[in-house]
Design brief:
The chain has 13 helices and 18 strands. By secondary structure, it is α/β, with parallel strands linked by helices.
Length: about 550
């Protein structure tokens, strides 16, 4: 079930005015208050509409006393069946832009009251037929709606809408999910009877200006008693109801006023049954595939005992008395008060229990002022809605912008940190590169020195191979700058041998030049031979050439 958080409903009828207050819990709706204000029995006979309206206004004043609160509350109101006009029409598929004008034209043809004297509305009904559109039109007189609106709003209620009892009953059946299979709902009221048919989601209805008051009036006329006494006798016999299921022989045995009352009740019920039969036949001629499996009876007439058996016998359909109160939760204040009155509130419950499916089937009737106010409220709500949406979008954009900005700043900070780290790493890399260069240079220098030593050893080895036997080196000096090896020593060889040694040195491939700085004879001798002191300067090819060529 789907419903509002709270709701108020007023059902204005010909026998009474009913007020219902709902409170909705997570576990389901609860009726917290229910009131009934009985109306004069002769109200249906009142022809003067102004007088009838005054009676309804006084009833509302008595019913709503003590309901003033600082906060306005929405209330939905239903009007009597004989005060509203409900018409079902079928139109060909038309563009949505033209549907208002076409339905208005059809409404002007269907409503037998000057169009400037009524408030009207319509709703598109669900249909299985693809090429047509089913529409329900509702209308009521302005001079009825306007004063009732003023009275209700004086108690700080805001009239949500006026609706017909038919649509309220449709709402009720949908609320209890009773519209899935072929169902016929009959609401037996005081002045009128609603007949509503449900078949696979489709709906069609008819209001008979025939009700339980006709029984009271006929009893009063036939027995020449007042309406109050006639109503009392009707209720007495209705609570018995055995005459509805009795055989003809048993009926003929009874005489007197009781039999008159029984006959009147039975005659009126037969009249209603015949109208229901005609209504079913008409609907089946239009919707040939429709099949009805059951009848549900509600309203004040449902209290007639054995009335379900009577309808079942004469219409051939399973019939049951509705009980729309029992499934609902009742406050402790109302416990035990609905034993007899349970079906008096069917229309009121239908006004209170709102199902989302019927959002387009409300067909609300409003005064021109309320309609204009509703339009302004709708525009205001739309403005607030779009304003809130705009604020939400701007807030979302601001949040996104702030978030993106913070993310961007975090990224920038991270990039700066990474760049600083990269710079540090670059400095470290440069230091490492310089260290590597220094190491390379050192290694090159060491390698060069190593090769110098190797080269020098080769030179010395070559020189040593050419040395004479009687030669002693005293000084061996290498001058790197000049690539010169200075050898100072002593020898006992002759000058000729020394010159030959010098020539041999010049013949080496890495020797560039050989010179003797000095050679002279000392007084000292060895084995009788004189000792000569000499200095040989050997200039050889530069080391770089020697190493790298």
């Amino acid at each position: 079930m789907h419903y509002k958080k709270s709701s108020f409903a007023i059902d204005i009828g010909n026998s009474s005015v009913k007020f219902l207050k709902f409170r909705h819990h997570w576990s389901g709706p609860e009726i917290i208050d229910a009131r009934v204000f009985p109306l004069p029995l002769d109200l249906p006979t009142v022809i003067d509409e102004g007088k009838k309206t005054e009676i309804w206004k006084n009833a509302l004043i008595h019913l709503l006393q003590g309901e003033t609160e600082p906060r306005p509350r929405n209330v939905t109101v239903s009007l009597p069946g004989d005060a509203t006009i409900v018409r079902y029409i079928t139109l060909p598929n038309i563009p949505p832009s033209k549907i208002d004008k076409i339905i208005r034209f059809e409404a002007e043809q269907q409503v037998p009251i000057p169009f400037n004297e009524i408030e009207w509305s319509y709703a598109v009904l669900p249909s299985r037929r693809k090429k047509v559109v089913d529409v329900v039109i509702t209308a009521a007189k302005k001079k009825l709606i306007s004063p009732l609106t003023d009275i209700i709003q004086s108690f700080n209620f805001k009239v949500d809408s006026f609706r017909s009892g038919q649509l309220a009953l449709c709402n009720l059946v949908k609320f209890y999910n009773l519209d899935k299979e072929g169902t016929l709902l009959i609401d037996l009221g005081a002045q009128s009877t609603h007949i509503i048919m449900f078949y696979k989601g489709m709906k069609w209805g008819r209001t008979l200006y025939l009700g339980m008051f006709k029984m009271t009036k006929m009893i009063s006329e036939k027995l020449s008693i007042d309406l109050k006494e006639a109503e009392k006798m009707k209720k007495t016999q209705a609570h018995d109801g055995t005459f509805l299921i009795a055989q003809k022989k048993e009926k003929s045995l009874k005489t007197g006023s009781a039999q008159v009352v029984n006959n009147v009740i039975e005659d009126v019920l037969y009249e209603i049954v015949n109208e229901v039969s005609r209504t079913i036949s008409y609907y089946l001629s239009v919707e040939r595939a429709a099949v009805f499996n059951r009848i549900i009876i509600t309203g004040g007439g449902s209290h007639i005992k054995h009335i379900n058996t009577f309808f079942e016998k004469n219409l051939g359909l399973k019939t049951q008395i509705a009980n729309f109160i029992t499934p609902l939760k009742l406050s402790s204040y109302l416990e035990g008060r609905f034993n007899y009155d349970k079906n008096f509130y069917s229309i009121t419950i239908g006004l209170s229990c709102t199902h989302p499916f019927f959002a387009a089937l409300k067909a609300p009737l409003l005064t021109h002022a309320l309609r204009e106010e509703r339009i302004l409220d709708t525009r205001r709500e739309r403005f607030y809605f779009f304003f809130i949406i705009t604020l939400f979008i701007l807030f979302t954009l601001a949040v996104n912008f702030t978030y993106e900005l913070s993310v961007k700043r975090k990224k920038e900070k991270l990039i700066k940190t990474q760049l600083a780290q990269i710079e540090k790493n670059e400095v470290k890399m440069k230091k490492i590169e310089n260290n590597i260069k220094n190491i390379k240079n050192t290694l090159m220098l060491l390698e060069l020195r190593s090769k110098e030593r190797e080269y020098l050893l080769r030179v010395l080895w070559e020189i040593e191979a050419l040395l004479l036997d009687n030669v002693w080196f005293d000084v061996l000096e290498f001058q790197k700058e000049n690539q010169m090896l200075i050898i100072s020593g002593r020898t006992t060889e002759t000058l000729a041998n020394i010159n030959n040694f010098q020539s041999a040195l010049r013949g080496l491939d890495f020797i560039k030049d050989v010179t003797f700085e000095a050679a002279h004879i000392e007084e000292e001798t060895m084995d009788g031979k004189p000792i000569r002191i000499f200095t040989i300067k050997v200039r050889f090819i530069p080391l770089a050439v020697g190493i790298y060529d």
